[in-house]
Specification:
By secondary structure, this protein is α/β, with parallel strands linked by helices. It folds into 2 domains: 184 residues, Rossmann fold; 169 residues, 3-Layer(aba) Sandwich (Rossmann fold), CATH 3.40.50.720. 37% of the residues lie in helices and 16% in strands. β4, α4 and β5 form a beta-alpha-beta unit. α6 packs across α7 and α11 packs across α12. The two termini are 21 Å apart.
Length: 372
């Protein structure tokens, strides 16, 4: 199979879909790997690194799309890239379709088969291709939130860990999954007073058993959330419903009750955000203010630490990438129901229920798609 990896073109996206190590593995399995020139530069990988691994360097994205049987990326294809997809071509990347009707429409029109990293599952109920980026984003969230809190950036001017005689920042993390756990660990490590909210009692018990002395946790009700948000210096939104739009857990009306200059960090922005006032931003212009509250809503947070993120993502995606290349997408999905859960689009039809529900589009089961 010809596997193509274009340069990411989303603003300030420095990650790359394949590492040189992944290219070497694919070549060793008998596949051709086509890398757009400069694709790895942002993550610290040179064209020479890829050619040494056995890949072929291609000049333009158009050539990569035209020649490749499978396109491997990081972020969802941008409008210009979607025009280059074709019927029967396989796309393997993050998609986050639920809040993105234009992308969904274009993918359906292209006739391609699209497997989304964020909906591939595992036998523990986890999301193995989302987890590494959730870990990165979770660990970044308190860091960027602390920067947002600085007075020069419009924040309250509160230091996360305080100093002797001065209380630390109060941080509320909404969601106790992968993002929330890593965010809470880092925020607590910075010395902040941290509370994690979640609606799963088993998860809260786990957090209490493992981190009970590090940060607090509380069952998430509307009342508890409102009370904690009101007193918070920083709120980190870390709620995920796989493949679906994120629920809005902090309303605009609640902003007027918060401390002026408090920071909202919305890690769920790829799925539409979990604050009512969230809108996607970029690393070039990451924060904005609504009603005196500072919002950090960068839609590709892990892109800021591109080398770490690329390596972490590559470790997770490589086994699936090789299965898709070795067997073809149909056989790979027949053999692995967890990979089949990643199928979002095939031959002009939507195959993921949560996306169809969010966008009002008819859906066929992925099992039927396999037979088509």
């Amino acid at each position: 199979m010809k596997i193509g990896c274009p340069t990411e073109i989303k603003p300030q996206e420095f990650r790359v879909g394949m590492t040189p190590d992944a290219a070497r593995e694919a070549v060793a399995h008998g596949h051709a790997v086509l890398i757009q020139s400069g694709a790895g530069n942002g993550a610290g990988f040179t064209d020479e690194d890829y050619t040494t691994a056995g890949a072929t360097i291609i000049g333009t994205a158009a050539e990569v799309f035209a020649q490749a049987d499978m396109i491997v990326k990081v972020k969802e294809p941008q409008a210009g890239e979607r025009k280059m997809l074709r019927e029967g071509q396989l796309l393997f990347t993050y998609l986050h379709l639920a809040p993105d009707p234009e992308q969904t429409k274009d993918l359906l029109a292209s006739g391609c088969t699209a497997i989304a990293y964020e909906t591939v599952t595992d036998d523990r109920g986890g999301l193995p291709l989302l987890a590494p980026m959730s870990e990165v984003a979770g660990r970044l969230a308190p860091q960027v939130g602390a920067w947002t809190l600085q007075k020069a950036n419009g924040g309250r001017g509160v230091l996360m860990g305080g100093v002797p005689g001065v209380a630390p920042a109060k941080v509320v993390v909404i969601g106790g999954g992968v993002v929330g756990t890593h965010a809470a660990k880092i925020a607590a490590g910075m010395g902040a007073d941290v509370t994690v909210l979640d609606r799963s009692l088993p998860r809260l018990r786990y957090l209490d058993d493992v981190f009970g002395g590090t940060f607090k946790n509380q069952y998430s009700t509307a009342g508890a959330t409102a009370e904690l948000v009101r007193e918070a210096d920083m709120v980190i939104g870390a709620v995920l419903i796989p493949g679906a739009a994120a629920p809005k857990l902090v309303t605009r009306a609640q902003l007027s009750e918060m401390k002026p200059g408090a920071a909202l960090v919305d890690v769920a922005i790829d799925q539409g955000g979990c604050f009512e006032t969230s809108r996607a931003t970029t690393h070039a212009d990451p924060i904005y203010e609504v009603d005196g509250i500072m919002h950090y809503c960068v839609a590709n947070m892990p892109g800021a630490v591109a080398r770490t993120s690329t390596q972490a993502l590559g470790n997770a995606t490589l086994p699936f990438l090789l299965n898709l290349a070795n067997k073809g997408w149909k056989q790979a999905c027949e053999d692995d129901p967890h990979l089949l859960n990643g199928l979002n689009v095939h031959a002009g039809q939507l195959t993921y229920y949560a996306v169809g529900k969010a966008l009002g589009i008819d859906v066929i089961s992925p099992t039927l798609a396999l037979k088509s």
